[in-house]
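From: lab user (bench 3)
To: helpdesk
Subject: output format question, protein + F0G

Hello, I'm new to running complex predictions and I'm not sure whether the block I got back is the full result or only part of it. Here's what I submitted:
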Amino acid sequence: MERWQTIIEPFRIHSVEPIRITSRAERLGAIEEAGHNLFNLHADDVLIDLLTDSGTGAMSRDQWAAVQHGDESYAGSPSWYAFLASVQDLFPFRHVIPTHQGRAAEKILFSVIGGPGKTIPNNTHFDTTRANVEFTGAEAVDLVIEEGRHPEGEHPFKGNMDLGRLEALLAERTPATIPAVLVTITNNSGGGQPVSLENLRGVRAICDRFGVPLFLDACRFAENAWFVKTREPGQADRAVRDIVREIASLADGMTMSAKKDGLANIGGWLAVNDDRLAEQCRNLLILTEGFPTYGGLAGRDLEAIAQGLREVVDEDYLRYRIRSTAYLGDALAEAGVPTVRPIGGHAVYLDARALLPHVPPLRYPGQALAVALYVEGGIRGCEIGTVMFGRHPDGSETPAAMDLVRLAIPRRTYTQSHVDYVVEVVRWVAERARDLRGYRIVDEPPALRHFTARFEPLV
Ligand code: F0G
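Helpdesk reply: Thanks, we reran it on our side. This is the complete output you should expect:
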């Protein structure tokens, strides 16, 4: 090891994108116009955009060069073969089915294997995954370990599946009603927490015993593999690429959003080993996404992903990536700001319920904190709490399990001084948290209200 402590960005900047500096008064006007909903803002009124890490990262010089190689042939494009080789190098599944993004892969998979009376266990379903399971009439069950349900406790693999509960569920229902077990790496809805290899091997053994296939929701597979390398006993000397291959070898298939660890702005895929399942999925693909050698993607997108997959397993990149997320989280923890611990791979989750104890959950402490970060510093995060999960199909409203604000870090996009600025703003807002007031919803749609609801501040 070198003697220097600072982990630097393993790249220099080649092309820059301006961000617009706004005044507090301008931001107040913009957020009022947006009905106090951060999704309604014009993105150029945002200074540091931490709404999501999905499709918002910077592509490399070599990815932009690969884009120029994009071949737009309808069938059998060389770009498809470049994509296929790159995917199968890490995930050697027999069938790879390209889609325009992750949820399209989910939609196709669950349309085939889901349906009324079926149950899909997962460590924690991401919202689109849950929605696609439930849309078919199947039930989505979350079985993350108990530690994964509490923001404060430290555990190296808080995304792990509760093997005891998984086994009990599989024993209780006949295998025929459980078409697949899913594991989400890293566990986004549970704080971006990783799953250990040991736990995956345990899930595999249970699946084998009951004859149920195992699928990965692998959006952040490289970040998960880095946590395995750095946290799991016996893994430190392995190449990340080999850890990824072992993870793949434990599964029968995967869904993927290339907007995360594909380092691309769009794209995804579904991969399976089963020939008959692949055929059924391809038939659906042709209906809604496109011919099987491009899915919903342009040839240039396939090329960008092929190159992105080579870059994302680079260990200098991953060391920087995980360190830069932890840098933000640790600085906030040092300032006494409560966060989900330990810091996950792609985001820092602020615990708004702990920070704003005077704002009851049904007055939306996460929304209050997220709006304040925007008004004071132009930072856009995302409420993950009672606004997002509090309203139920029967019209009732209850507090969500947690009221969090996610600050998601786009890949290779912001510098350390941007992050230092975020720390300064969050600290300032946190020190004045007792002055923040809750919100009331004045207009909301029947489902997925967080995207479009309008709010009014309480006085
Ligand atoms: N699975 C997980 C774990 C995800 O985080 C996402 C997207 C998807 C599936 C769906 O992929 O967006 O390509 O259709 N997560 C984004 C986020 C939107 O902000 O966390 P997609």
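A quick orientation on your result: The mean pLDDT is 96. Let us know if anything else is unclear.
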